[in-house]
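Predict the 3D structure for this chain.
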Amino acid sequence: MGGFLPPAERRSSALVGVYAALSLLLLITGDRVPQTTLRGIGAWIFSPFDRVVLVVDRASAAWRENQRLHQRVAELEFDVVVTHEGLVGRIGESYTMLSRVILLTDANAPIACEVESVGVMGILHYVTTPYPRLVLAGVPLADTVHIGQRVLTSGLSRRYPRSLPVGQIVRLGVDPSGLSQDIEVSPAARLSHLRHAFVIPAPDSLRERR
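Done. Predicted structure below.
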């Protein structure tokens, strides 16, 4: 039969046969061979298997640790950055000893917000024309808002929980398109004078949306 088997299978069969023969030999001569010699032979025979098991175990442990770290980084990237005054932004990237924060004044980081008490919804984003400022966009002309009202997170942005203070309405106008209001918002947190900030985790319901 051996001639009909592929070379790899013949080598495997031969290896198994050698181990079986050695095991049988050790059983027969076990009483005549010193224990130290038996232990040495056993260690020599099974050491390749021990090395394979050790390598597999280390690879498995490294994979599990890597998965845990990836999960931790994902969780940290859903944390929110605030001061006692209000929202600063969110964690963009996490590293071993520091994190990069995406400020609410980032033009590429719009936030779903609402005007306190009246429930008027809009999207807060940073614009540079005609001058740098925060604007609550998408508010219909028919909705009534007033200067001095607070703007809060609405909870519709997946990275921000609801009701975080964002800012206060400081100017009202009409969007150049004439279809919606131009609402300027002053940030609650003094972004130009930040000394300390706090990181708070987003709710589990927000992290699960990812």
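The chain has three helices and ten strands.
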